[in-house]
Amino acid sequence: MTGLNLAGMSTNSLAVALSADETALHDIIAGVSGLETRTRALMGEFAAGKRSWYRQADDDASRALLLAYVNYRTALLRIIWKYQDHARVSDETLQLRAFLASYTAASVLYESSLKFVTFFENAPDAIRKLNEPEPLWSIPPGLYDEVRRSLANPENRKMMQQAAQTYREHRSGFERNNLGTGAPFDEFHTAIAKSEKAMQQSSLVAISAGVAAPLADARDAGKLAIYRVQTFISSWVGDTKVREPHGGKSLIQPAHLKELRAKLKPGDLMLERRNWFLSNAFLPGYWPHAALYVGTADDLRRLGLDRDPRVQKHWQRFLTRDDRGHERVIIEAISEGVVFTSMEHSVGEADAAAFLRPNLTEDRLKEVIARAFSHAGKPYDFEFDFFSSDKLVCSEVVYRAFDGDIKLPLVDVMGRKTLPPIEIVRQCVAEHAQGSAQFAFVAWLNSDERRKRVTFGGEEDFYKTANWSGMDLAPRR
C-alpha cells in the first residue's frame, strides 16, 4: 500500500501534483474549521433540548455533519498516502513540500478526529447515531468507535511524535526553501502547531475508554518510516476500500484512448471509477465520479465557444497543456476544485469509464458547455450540498451544466438534495426501458482485472452496472 512513486516522477509532474494537493489542503483546513463550529453549535442545541435524536430533521442534521467529516477524512488520508514516500525525492524543495503536505494532512486528520471523538464522548445517544451505518454512502457501522480506536492506537501517536520530530529538524530547510511563510505554507505550519498542542493536551487514557486494547506491533521498530505511515493509514481506514491493483497503474492504454476519442463529441457526459486506494470511499454504487467531456480547443472554436464570455474567462487555462503535454478536454470537480483535465489523466489512469450523449441540439449543447466553464476554478464541495453553487462536487458540475436542458434525479440524503453519479445511470436504465431516454449510450471502456485486459462493453451490459456494488472489481456478464 505504498503511495505514489515520487522518485519516479518528473520534477514538473511532482510540482504540479503538490500544487494541486496544497490547494486541496487549504480548502480542507477551512472546511474542517467550519465543520467544527457547526458541530459545536449543533451539540449545544441538543444539550439545551432544542433538538431531539428522535426527530428526523435533527437526526439528518447530525448525520450530514458525519458525512462531511468522513469526506474530509478520506481526502486527508489520500494526501497522506500519496506522499508517504517523500524521503526518496531528490529535489530538496519538492521533498520538503511533499513531507509538509503529508504531515499537515496527518495533523489535521488527527486533530479533527480528536475533536470528533471528544465532542460526543459524553453523549451516548449521539454515539449510537454516529455508529449507525449509512448504506447509501457506504459508511460502515461503528465509525465513531473506529475513529476512537485509531486515536487510542499507541503506534499512531508514536508515528505522529516521530513526524513532529522530523518536522522540527526540517525547520531550517523550510526557511531556506521559502516554505516557512507565505500562502499556503504559513497556514500549514499553523495547522501543525494546533494539532501538536491538541495532542499534548489529550489524554490517551480518556480516549481509550471503552476501546479494546490494540494488538502490539511485533515488527522491528527499526523498519522504514514508510512502514509506520502504512500502519497509520491502515488503522484509520479499517475496512475501507483500499486497493492498488497492477502496481497503481491502469490497464487502459493509449490505443484504447485513441479508439475512444473517435467516438466522442463535445458535451458528452463521462462516468468514471478507479479501483485503487480510497478513490471510491463513501460514494455509493459502481460509478462514483461524473464529469463533462467538452472537446478540444479546435472543437470549441468550431462551435464558436471561444467567443463566449463564460468560456473566454478560462480560455487560457483551458489551452494550457497538462504536465505531460496532453491537451485538456474534460471539466471535472476533484479535491483541488473544478479543473480542466486531459483524457490521458482522467480516463487513462482509471479502471473504467463510460460516456453518454445528451439528446440535445447543437445550440443547447453549446450552452451546456459554456455553463460548465462558468464554474471552473471553484473549490470542491466536501459536504455534497447542492443548495449553493460556490463549491461543487463532481456530479454537481454536470447537474448545473445540464440545468434546464436535461432533468437529473436529485435524491434526498440526510435532509438535503444531492446527486450520487450512480443515480444518473439508474435514471438512464429506467428511461431506456420506457423509450424516453435523455441520453444515448456512446461507449464503455472497462478493465477486467481477472484477465488483465480492457474491453469496450456493450450498451445492455453497461446498464447492468446500475446495480453493481462499489466493491465490484471485475466485469460480470
Secondary structure topology:
Elements: H1 11-47, H2 56-82, H3 92-120, H4 124-130, H5 143-152, H6 154-169, H7 171-176, H8 185-201, H9 204-208, H10 225-237, H11 254-261, E1 268-273, E2 289-293, H12 297-302, H13 309-312, H14 315-319, E3 328-334, E4 337-342, H15 343-346, E5 352-358, H16 362-373, H17 394-401, E6 411-413, E7 416-418, H18 421-434, E8 439-448, E9 453-456, H19 459-464
Antiparallel strand pairs: 1-2, 1-5, 2-3, 3-4, 5-8, 6-7, 8-9
Helix pairs in contact: 1-2, 1-3, 2-3, 2-10, 3-5, 3-6, 3-8, 16-17
What does this 3D model show about the protein?
The protein is an alpha+beta fold and 477 residues long. It has 2 domains: 6-240, Methane Monooxygenase Hydroxylase, Chain G, domain 1; 246-467, endopeptidase domain like (from Nostoc punctiforme) (endopeptidase fold (from Nostoc punctiforme)). The protein has helices at 11-47, 56-82, 92-120, 124-130, 143-152, 154-169, 171-176, 185-201, 204-208, 225-237, 254-261, 297-302, 309-312, 315-319, 343-346, 362-373, 394-401, 421-434, 459-464; strands spanning 268-273, 289-293, 328-334, 337-342, 352-358, 411-413, 416-418, 439-448, 453-456. The strands form 2 sheets. A 7-stranded antiparallel sheet has the order 4-3-2-1-5-8-9. The protein has a two-stranded antiparallel sheet with strand order 6-7. The two termini are 30 Å apart.
